[in-house]
Amino acid sequence: MKAPSRVREMPILRVIARALVPVILLFGLYVQFHGDFGPGGGFQAGVIFAAGLIIFALVFGGEALRQVVPVVLTERLMAAGVLLYGAVGVVAMFLGGEFLNYSALDPLTTGHHGQHLGIIVIELGVGIAVAATIMRVYYAFVGRRPDEDGTDADPALDTGAGGEAS
Amino acid sequence: MPPVELLLMLLLLATVVVVARLKDLFAAAMLTGIASLLAAGLFVLMDAVDVAFTEAAVGAGVSTVLFLGALSLTSRREKQERTRILPILIVVATGAALIYGTWDMPAYGDPDAVIHHHLAPELIAETEKKIHIPNIVTAILASFRGYDTFGEVVVIFTAGVGVALLLGGLGLRRRDSDGEEQS
After folding, report:
1. What whole-number distance in Å separates Cα of residue B175 and Cα of residue B183?
2. Which of A78, A83, B38, B81 ranks highest by number of CB atoms within 10 Å?
């Protein structure tokens, strides 16, 4: 029997990816929301989350991932993350503080609840922007096909671009 | 240098030398991933766990995939080229200058180093009282340096927009012209 030539026909990889991807995504969320207490934060969380989704695309095909996370969604989330961060600063201004002065978000206490709230929200903005940007860059790289006029591209190096065989 | 760090450092050195000499681009791409993983291990040993997260996920994970994606568009082997002397000289001179620059740096973990006496004691003592979260790194990056971090997010956003515009991939234009999303 011929060995499967493509990654996504190999049962061991499929089973392991099916088990690992949810754990990676959960770990990304943990790094995101536990960033105030442990190592990590929005950037690391966004990268881990995107890497988990990319593993999914490598094994199950890019088309499967684009059904979960469409290209347009990544473009909107890139902007949404930056806007969420900026919005925290603007809200702080409306509440009487300076731009990005999180203490103003909580005028009733001495400000440490505001600091906590502000940090959680801006880290969420960072995480969303980073994850969406990495997904968009991944789509841009693997979405390109070899030129029609016969380059010597190696079809074995399938990084989940096409999905024509899935 | 402790033995584990020495081992990782030697493995890292061997990996990058092999990457520079390999003609097989697929193997070179995989080895750059391994080099990033070794670097991430070094960062963990230096207690920079957040940097290690980033290095492992971006360097070993995502960028290896991007290398492979680019490789699927081109040839798997590097074209044979004769060795040029001038680039080697420039690289060796730059490397020597960088190593010469490290001679003035304090030893790793030196408690008398300037960086441990300028702002760090004040930040370690005051951050938790001011911000009320235990992770000082997060507090400094997100609150004290909120402007910088905002700028970094804008940089990442700009980079993503630039890649999307230059490489396009599955961007809007193709979908408009075909009426359906190609792949």
Report:
1. 10
2. A78
